[in-house]
Amino acid sequence: MTESGKPILYSYFRSSCSWRVRIALALKSIDYETIPINLIKDGGQQFSEEFQALNPMKQVPALKIDGITIGQSLAIIEYLEETRPTPRLLPQDPKKRAHVRMISDLIASGIQPLQNLSVLKQVGQENQLTWAQKAITSGFNALEQILQSTAGRYCVGDEVSMADLCLVPQVANAERFKVDLTPYPTISRINKTLLALEAFQVSHPCRQPDTPPELRA
Amino acid sequence: MTESGKPILYSYFRSSCSWRVRIALALKSIDYETIPINLIKDGGQQFSEEFQALNPMKQVPALKIDGITIGQSLAIIEYLEETRPTPRLLPQDPKKRAHVRMISDLIASGIQPLQNLSVLKQVGQENQLTWAQKAITSGFNALEQILQSTAGRYCVGDEVSMADLCLVPQVANAERFKVDLTPYPTISRINKTLLALEAFQVSHPCRQPDTPPELRA
C-alpha cells in the first residue's frame, strides 16, 4: 500500500494476467496505483532483486493490498471478491460458480501459461507463432463448446464474472498471435460485448501508464 | 452420478491433477466411483468422442456430481468446498485464503501445465527431461521462498488446505523427473508430513483402480 493507503498493482501493460486484475479493480471501483514492471526492458525488470522479494515467481501481476502482497491473478481476484464483494464477480449459485471457475482455470492454466513470454523464449524464435497458435486454438476449441451450455450475454449467464475477465485478455493474445477467430463465434460475440464496457476499456493495454506512445489509443 | 447417486471421477492414476481431487474427496469422506481414463492407451482415451463430450479440454480429472460435470481440478475442489464444507480446505481468514490460492495457482498454472504430457510430447523426446526440470525448479525456487512466510506444519499454517493438495502431487512429478530436492527443505518437509496422512495415502497413484500391477504398492 502507498502512504495514502491505496493498493499498488505491479503490472505490465501487455500482460494478459495483469489485465484480468485491472478489470476486476475497475469493476469494483477500487482506486489503486500502478507500478509498471517492464518484462522486456533491462533484460526484464521482473528479475530484479527488489521485485523478486515481492513476488518470487518473477511474474506480474502482484497486488499489495491490506498489508499483504498477492501474486497469481485468480488468487488476487478471489481475494478482492471476498473482501470487496460488490459488484460480484462470482454468481451466487454454487454450480454457476463452478462453471465460472472452470472457464477461468481453462484459460489461466490451460492456455495462457503455454503461450507466455518465458515459454516462447524457450521454444525459439522460429517456432513461437505455431506453438502459441496451437495452445490457443486447442483451448478455444474446448471453450467454444463449453460456452454453448453456460453462456448468456457473457461467459456464464448474463452477469459479468471472473471468466469474462480471463476471456477478453486471452482473445487479445489470440489476435496478437494471428489466430483465426472465425471458428469461435460465441467467444467472439462475448468478447465484443465485453469490450464495450467501461471497465474493460479503462483497463485495456492501450491505455495504461506504461503503454508506449505508439501503441496508445 | 451413478444410479446410486455417487459422484463419478474420471481419473488417471498417474495424473497429478486427478490426485489433487482424489485427496479432496478422501479428506471430505465423499464416496465416489472412478472411471479410469488411460492417457496413453489407444492413443489416449481422453481423445475419445465420448470423453470429449464430457470434458472438451480432453483432460482428466472431470467430476460428475450433483447433475453437472466439472473440469479443472481447482474448480472441482472449490465446488466441493462450497457444497461439502467439512473439513475445510480453505482457511477462514481471507488473507490466509489468498495465500492458499496463490500457492495453488503457482503450481496449477505456473508449474504443472509446463510439464504435462501433451506439452512434453511437443518438446520432443530428447528435450523432455530438461524442459520438465526447468519448469519445476523455477516454480519450486519461488515456492520454497513463499513458504518461509506462510508455512506452519503445512503450506499455510497448521491446517491442511488446497495448497497441500497441489503440493504433494507436484513433488511426486518432480521425483519422476529426477529433480534434486535438496534445495527445497521446506517443500520436502511438508510433503513428507502430508504423505503420512491417510487421505494422501488412499488417493496415491500406486493405489488406484487403474494402477498397473507392477506399480502397485
From TrEMBL, chains A, B:
<feature type="domain" description="GST C-terminal">
    <location>
        <begin position="93"/>
        <end position="213"/>
    </location>
</feature>
<dbReference type="InterPro" id="IPR034330">
    <property type="entry name" value="GST_Zeta_C"/>
</dbReference>
<dbReference type="InterPro" id="IPR010987">
    <property type="entry name" value="Glutathione-S-Trfase_C-like"/>
</dbReference>
<dbReference type="Pfam" id="PF14497">
    <property type="entry name" value="GST_C_3"/>
</dbReference>
<comment type="similarity">
    <text>Belongs to the GST superfamily. Zeta family.</text>
</comment>
<dbReference type="GO" id="GO:0006572">
    <property type="term" value="P:L-tyrosine catabolic process"/>
</dbReference>
<dbReference type="InterPro" id="IPR004046">
    <property type="entry name" value="GST_C"/>
</dbReference>
<keyword id="KW-0828">Tyrosine catabolism</keyword>
<dbReference type="InterPro" id="IPR036282">
    <property type="entry name" value="Glutathione-S-Trfase_C_sf"/>
</dbReference>
<dbReference type="GO" id="GO:0004364">
    <property type="term" value="F:glutathione transferase activity"/>
</dbReference>
<dbReference type="InterPro" id="IPR005955">
    <property type="entry name" value="GST_Zeta"/>
</dbReference>
<keyword id="KW-0808">Transferase</keyword>
<feature type="domain" description="GST N-terminal">
    <location>
        <begin position="5"/>
        <end position="88"/>
    </location>
</feature>
<dbReference type="InterPro" id="IPR034333">
    <property type="entry name" value="GST_Zeta_N"/>
</dbReference>
<dbReference type="InterPro" id="IPR036249">
    <property type="entry name" value="Thioredoxin-like_sf"/>
</dbReference>
<dbReference type="GO" id="GO:0005739">
    <property type="term" value="C:mitochondrion"/>
</dbReference>
<keyword id="KW-0413">Isomerase</keyword>
<keyword id="KW-0963">Cytoplasm</keyword>
<dbReference type="InterPro" id="IPR004045">
    <property type="entry name" value="Glutathione_S-Trfase_N"/>
</dbReference>
<dbReference type="GO" id="GO:0006749">
    <property type="term" value="P:glutathione metabolic process"/>
</dbReference>
<protein>
    <recommendedName>
        <fullName>Maleylacetoacetate isomerase</fullName>
        <ecNumber>2.5.1.18</ecNumber>
        <ecNumber>5.2.1.2</ecNumber>
    </recommendedName>
</protein>
<dbReference type="InterPro" id="IPR040079">
    <property type="entry name" value="Glutathione_S-Trfase"/>
</dbReference>
<dbReference type="GO" id="GO:0016034">
    <property type="term" value="F:maleylacetoacetate isomerase activity"/>
</dbReference>
<comment type="pathway">
    <text>Amino-acid degradation; L-phenylalanine degradation; acetoacetate and fumarate from L-phenylalanine: step 5/6.</text>
</comment>
<keyword id="KW-0585">Phenylalanine catabolism</keyword>
<dbReference type="GO" id="GO:0006559">
    <property type="term" value="P:L-phenylalanine catabolic process"/>
</dbReference>
<dbReference type="Pfam" id="PF13409">
    <property type="entry name" value="GST_N_2"/>
</dbReference>
